Amino acid sequence: MKTLIKISAVFLFCIICKAQQTEVPVMKYEDLEKRIQREKEHLVVVNFWATTCAPCVKELPHFMEINNEYSGNAKFKMFLVSLDRLADKERVLKFIKNKNITAEVILLDDIKRMNTWIPKFEKEWDGNIPVTLFYKNGEKIKFNDGEMSKEELKKTITENLQ
């Protein structure tokens, strides 16, 4: 039995390591918008965060649990959009590895134009993070300003995957 547990642990570790990104794509707003729109067949969860944002880091384990739970669902996709500076890209990669981040991470290198693209995502967004947006069939269906509980995240996903 102990051998089976050890083999299972090694297998799970390999899956997690394989699923982690080794590179983070860098995008401008327009590229991110196109990327989200290409996912019209999916329920898309887009979380804006940063490695230096305590509430963001606090909620990420919930997002990873939910991402791992739904990752086998062909109609589900999650993007974690880092608002860290481009100069901190290596820190973001290290964070992904250390925190076992399995959702796709994108570095949004468009800080100078925040006042332009933030209202395009959501008029009510004042620029604070974390923020989570949900898209279904290419249309925004929910905006969550601030930290999101695991229960609320799961409820929103479950209601909209049907």
UniProtKB/TrEMBL annotation:
<protein>
    <submittedName>
        <fullName>TlpA family protein disulfide reductase</fullName>
    </submittedName>
</protein>
<dbReference type="InterPro" id="IPR050553">
    <property type="entry name" value="Thioredoxin_ResA/DsbE_sf"/>
</dbReference>
<feature type="domain" description="Thioredoxin">
    <location>
        <begin position="18"/>
        <end position="162"/>
    </location>
</feature>
<dbReference type="InterPro" id="IPR036249">
    <property type="entry name" value="Thioredoxin-like_sf"/>
</dbReference>
<dbReference type="InterPro" id="IPR013766">
    <property type="entry name" value="Thioredoxin_domain"/>
</dbReference>
<dbReference type="Pfam" id="PF00085">
    <property type="entry name" value="Thioredoxin"/>
</dbReference>
<dbReference type="InterPro" id="IPR017937">
    <property type="entry name" value="Thioredoxin_CS"/>
</dbReference>
<keyword id="KW-0676">Redox-active center</keyword>
